[in-house]
Amino acid sequence: QVQLVESGGGLVQAGGSLRLSCAASGRTFSSYVMGWVRQAPGKERGCVVAISWIGGRTYYADSVKGRFTISRDNAKNTVYLQMKSLKPEDTAVYYCAAGRISSFPSSSATRLRAYDYWGQGTQVTVSS
Prior knowledge:
single chain, mainly beta, seven-stranded mixed sheet
């Protein structure tokens, strides 16, 4: 069992930055692929970034490439999402997710059903 707790969301102006953190419980953090999934109002959830078990490989959706950076610290059981040059369309609830995914990067790692554990979400609002 893994529990995930996100923090760092808030209100920021367009062009600004935010850093999200996700702290995980348990001893097997490094065995999980970690992802950040967001859900904007009226839209479906979608995976925007993900990182492999020890952080050597990453995935970025086209919409966030060059602006978002995912990283992880397995010693601290924490995954981070640094967001820069934020746009109003980045406004969403951001969820941290952990998945026992055997292959990364892979198309399966971007699918929500690949993730076994989810945080409660943190709101990010970008004003224009």
